[in-house]
């Protein structure tokens, strides 16, 4: 009798599993039918779509973004990719880029950004500024945060940019004396981390003087975790990866605990009537105050933004600086011209003023061209909720649209001889790129720290050119490493000499 019951239960369970699987397969088939009129690479399999190709590209040490460039060249400005039941449409058509990215009605794709809510189950960027897909949730935060990025406020940050860059110069003087090569990425990374700690949160940590800082390691681990968790849904399932997963979870915890402490310290300072800067932390607290925050949920959102500013506001600029140093090292004539401009504007003076920044025309071109070839945050996604015709192709609503600055900015169609590093493309008389150059994204969800980051990058690079000659150690790779953001694989190893 019991055996009979067990066999009935097993039968019904198997039938239920089979029915669910069948329904899922039918759904996948329906999704394929809906979008298969669009060009795109052949799927690896019916269910997995292109996931195995992505996994192979990630394992093979090649850059997945280069695969997207190849697909862009082969299949045109609109092509389709599948992952299980989801379809993602890659768009590199300037008109559609303008329409979608410039309009507030196309929201960030929640299915993409909610993957950064947690890292391996630990709350990470939650519903902070980058990840909030809901327009109202995002807009409230952005409106309150804007004053911390106004030109008046940014002007006042020149002192900090100068001070933190001077620390790097002091450090480089010591290195120059030893005549040994140094990894430039590690050093500029310390500067941008110091800057964000000081400018955003009023904390001075001096990472150049620290070896093996747990906080710096935690930021690094979180960035690595983002790639693993977002791009490989099966990573945490394999026991060989459990140690890494655990380390990443601890890193997230350390970051959020640090945020909690700094927020508490600032609250105490305010309660004690101390004069506090109107920095990003003040705005985060103001946000909480305006929203009448006191629930645990809202407290978590403050920490979401704490994490967001570390993730968004540091590596991206450090990587841009490293790529710029790499390209200047590879192109002596560009290096000479940039240095001549810096020397003419600064002479021997140490403190760079806000007005000086506006005069660095060629240096700005170098930085723009760096972000063209190496957009350190390579893309963004939007949710297409309604049908649209793009490049003559009807795209049914209900899919994710991917915009890759990396692909657009490396397409022959938009940038002649795209792999050539040529700052002349951004000469004032050169034609302006039309919605095919967007290293900071575009429209309402454009980077909040764009001006901030480029002020910081100019100060560091100008001081470097003014005071040192750097040459690349021969034989190193000029490849790109994808760690969520894009960075130079070699770390940019240089010999440093003081300028005579
Ligand atoms: C070279 C440096 C940087 C690059 C290339 C860059 C690029 C980007 C890109 C592409 C986005 C859009 C992300 C998306 O749609 O998923 C973004 C958003 C954002 N970035 Fe940056 N970023 C840089 C530096 C910074 C800095 C220094 C800060 C802060 C101090 C910052 C804060 C933000 C914030 C808060 C957002 C979200 C904006 C919103 O949705 O309202 N970024 N950035």
From TrEMBL:
GO terms for biological process, alphabetical: cholesterol catabolic process
E.C. number: 1.14.14.25
Organism superkingdom: Eukaryota
Cofactor(s) listed in the protein's UniProt record: heme
Molecular function in Gene Ontology: cholesterol 24-hydroxylase activity; heme binding; iron ion binding
Keywords associated with the record: Cell projection, Cholesterol metabolism, Endoplasmic reticulum, Heme, Iron, Lipid metabolism, Membrane, Metal-binding, Microsome, Monooxygenase, Oxidoreductase, Steroid metabolism, Sterol metabolism, Synapse, Transmembrane, Transmembrane helix
GO cellular component: dendrite; endoplasmic reticulum membrane; postsynapse; presynapse
Family membership noted in the UniProt record: Belongs to the cytochrome P450 family.
Function: P450 monooxygenase that plays a major role in cholesterol homeostasis in the brain. By promoting constant cholesterol elimination in neurons, may activate the mevalonate pathway and coordinate the synthesis of new cholesterol and nonsterol isoprenoids involved in synaptic activity and learning.
Protein name per UniProt: Cholesterol 24-hydroxylase
């Amino acid at each position: 009798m019991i055996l009979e019951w067990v066999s009935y239960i097993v039968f019904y369970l198997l039938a239920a599993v089979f029915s669910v699987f069948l329904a899922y397969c039918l759904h996948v088939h329906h999704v394929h039918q809906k979008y298969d009129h669009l060009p795109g690479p052949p799927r690896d399999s019916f269910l997995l779509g292109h996931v195995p190709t992505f996994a192979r590209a990630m394992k093979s040490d090649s850059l997945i973004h280069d695969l997207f460039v190849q697909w862009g060249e082969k299949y045109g400005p609109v092509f389709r990719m599948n992952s299980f039941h989801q379809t993602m449409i890659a768009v590199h058509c300037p008109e559609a880029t303008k329409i979608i990215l410039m309009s507030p009605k196309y929201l960030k794709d929640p299915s993409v950004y909610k993957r950064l809510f947690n890292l391996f189950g630990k709350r990470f960027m939650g519903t902070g500024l980058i990840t909030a897909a809901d327009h109202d949730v995002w807009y409230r935060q952005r409106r309150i945060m804007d004053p911390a990025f106004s030109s008046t406020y940014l002007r006042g940050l020149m002192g900090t940019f100068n001070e933190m860059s001077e620390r790097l110069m002091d450090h480089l003087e010591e290195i120059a004396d030893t005549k040994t090569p140094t990894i430039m990425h590690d050093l500029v990374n310390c500067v941008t981390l110091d800057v964000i700690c000081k400018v955003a949160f009023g904390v001075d940590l001096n990472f150049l003087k620290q070896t093996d800082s747990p906080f710096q390691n935690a930021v690094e681990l979180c960035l690595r975790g983002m790639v693993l968790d977002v791009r490989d849904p099966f990573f945490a399932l394999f026991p060989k990866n459990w140690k890494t997963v655990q380390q990443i979870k601890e890193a997230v915890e350390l970051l959020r605990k640090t945020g909690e402490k700094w927020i508490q310290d600032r609250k105490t300072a305010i309660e004690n009537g101390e004069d506090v800067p109107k920095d990003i932390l003040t705005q985060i607290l103001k946000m909480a105050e305006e929203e009448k925050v006191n629930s645990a949920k809202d407290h978590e959102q403050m920490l979401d933004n704490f994490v967001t500013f570390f993730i968004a506001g540091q590596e991206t600029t450090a990587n841009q600086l490293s790529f710029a140093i790499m390209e200047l090292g590879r192109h002596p004539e560009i290096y000479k011209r940039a240095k001549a401009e810096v020397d003419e504007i600064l002479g021997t003076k140490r403190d760079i003023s806000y007005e000086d920044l506006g005069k660095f025309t060629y240096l700005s071109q170098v930085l723009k061209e760096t972000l063209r070839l190496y957009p350190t945050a390579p893309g963004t996604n939007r949710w297409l909720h309604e049908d649209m015709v793009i490049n003559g192709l009807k795209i049914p609503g209900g899919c994710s649209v991917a915009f890759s600055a990396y692909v657009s900015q490396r397409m022959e169609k938009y940038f002649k001889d795209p792999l050539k590093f040529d700052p002349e493309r951004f000469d004032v008389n050169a034609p302006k790129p039309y919605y095919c150059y967007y290293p900071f994204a575009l429209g309402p969800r454009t980077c909040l720290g764009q001006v901030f980051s480029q002020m910081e990058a100019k100060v560091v690079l100008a001081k470097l050119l003014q005071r040192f000659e750097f040459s690349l150690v021969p034989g190193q790779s000029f490849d790109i490493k994808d760690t969520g953001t894009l960075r130079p694989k070699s770390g940019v190893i240089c010999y440093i000499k003081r300028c005579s």
